[in-house]
Amino acid sequence: MKIVELSMVLKIIPKVLQIFLNFCLVLLSLILSFLLIKELTMFLKIFMTDGSSDYKMFIANILIFFLYFEFITMIVKYFKEEYHFPLRYFIYIGITAMIRLIIVEHDHPIDTLIYSLVILILIIGYFIMNITPLERPNRQK
C-alpha cells in the first residue's frame, strides 16, 4: 500500500513543480514586459529632448530593449516548444549583452578585445550548433 502512495507522490511532484515553474515564468514575462514598456518611454524622452546628443546612451538603451525583447521571446518559445528553451536564444542574448558592453564600456582596450573574443566564441558555437544534425538518438523508455 505504501509503495502505491509513494509512486503517486513521485508522479505528482514533477507536475506541481512544472506548474510552479510556468507560473514563475509568466510572472517574469509580465515584469519584463513592464520594463520593455519603460524602455520605450525612455526612448521617447531621449528622442524628444532637444539638444540630446548622447548617442551612446541611446544605443545602450536600444540594446537593453532588445535584451528584454529576447528574454520575452525566449519565454514564449519555451511554452510553444513544450517546455524547452532553445539554446540559440541564449546565444542571441549573450551576443547582444556583449555588444552592449562594448558600446557602453569601451574605455579599456583589453576588456573590449576580450568582449570581442567572447562574441566570436558565441558565433562559432552558433555556427557549430547549426551545422550539426538535429537528429538525436532516442532515449530508451
What does this protein look like?
- The protein is mainly alpha-helical and 141 residues long.
- It has one domain (2-131).
- It is 81% helix and 0% strand.
- The protein has four helices and no strands.
- It has helices at residues 2-48, 55-80, 87-104, 109-131.
- It is extended and about 70 Å long.
Summarize the structure.
This protein has 141 residues and is mainly alpha-helical. It is 81% helix and 0% strand. It comes from Psychrobacillus vulpis.
What is the topological layout?
Elements: H1 2-48, H2 55-80, H3 87-104, H4 109-131
Helix pairs in contact: 1-2, 2-3, 3-4
C-alpha Rg (nearest Å)? 21 Å
The dominant shape is extended
Fraction of helical residues:
over 70%
Mean pLDDT, to the nearest integer, reads 84
Family: Belongs to the PsiE family.
Pfam family, one: PsiE
Protein name: Protein PsiE
Membrane topology: Multi-pass membrane protein
